[in-house]
């Protein structure tokens, strides 16, 4: 996997993934930024959420469960002094579908957290990561 990050000006950077997608990263005005993009640490948190949601949907679909939507709401705390690593992350999953079993959704989230989601397993080296979920029945 490759990536490239190029400084544009002040605290503005353009990041390009190996697959050719571009993301703008910027800092707040107090750091010389113009608030034009996400912060690098926000990107890490978003990456963890994307990785976990992808896993949960994939596991449920592979098991032929009728999943219709999956959202992960993340909250994180960081250390007060440098390096300001994540110290606590909570992921709340909202899984929507038809006839989804509680045990099946719980298992999918656990498998993601403990086995498949490289991002959360890596961030778990510095942060206490917790999960909960709700299942919303749809027609």
UniProtKB/TrEMBL annotation:
Protein source organism: Methylocaldum szegediense
In Swiss-Prot or TrEMBL terms, this protein is called OsmC family protein YhfA
Alphabetical list of PANTHER family matching this protein: PROTEIN YHFA
* InterPro entries named among the record's database cross-references: KH_dom-like_a/b (IPR015946), OsmC/Ohr_fam (IPR003718), OsmC/Ohrsf (IPR036102)
Q: Gene encoding it?
A: yhfA
What would be one Pfam family of this protein?
Answer: OsmC
């Amino acid at each position: 996997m490759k990536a490239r990050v190029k400084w544009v000006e002040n605290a503005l950077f353009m990041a390009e993934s190996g697959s050719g997608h571009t993301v703008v990263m910027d800092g707040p005005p107090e750091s010389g930024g113009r608030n034009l993009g996400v912060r690098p640490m926000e990107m890490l948190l978003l990456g963890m959420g994307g990785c976990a949601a992808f896993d949960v949907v994939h596991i449920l679909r592979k098991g032929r469960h009728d999943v219709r939507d999956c959202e992960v709401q993340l909250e994180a705390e960081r250390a007060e002094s440098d390096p300001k690593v994540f110290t606590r992350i909570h992921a709340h999953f909202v899984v929507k579908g038809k006839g989804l079993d509680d045990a099946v959704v719980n298992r999918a989230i656990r498998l993601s957290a403990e086995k498949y989601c490289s991002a959360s397993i890596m961030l778990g080296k510095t942060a206490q990561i917790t999960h909960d979920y709700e299942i919303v029945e749809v027609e």
